[in-house]
Write a structure and sequence with these properties.
The chain contains four helices and no strands. The longest helix has 17 residues. By secondary structure, it is an all-alpha fold.
Length: 71
């Protein structure tokens, strides 16, 4: 994944999380990761595994490919 793709994923995770009115804390609880981990994903500093990305997409009720689409 390129650096710009990683940042795009993070930006979209944040966008869809906020659309669902979920805090980073609540999302991290549902995904079973730390709040810091969610924060790092959203900042484009961590690349989630495909398994975690699918879990996040499931929780946010979106198709996983939407994380890679420009907003």
């Amino acid at each position: 994944m390129t650096n710009s793709s990683i940042k795009l994923v993070g930006k979209n995770v944040r966008k869809y999380r906020k659309l669902r009115n979920l805090s980073q804390e609540k999302l991290s609880e549902l995904v079973d990761v730390t709040t810091d981990y969610i924060s790092l994903i959203e900042l484009g500093k961590r690349v989630p595994s495909l398994k975690r990305l699918y879990k996040i997409a499931e929780i946010l009720d979106i198709e996983p490919y939407k994380f890679l689409k420009e907003i």
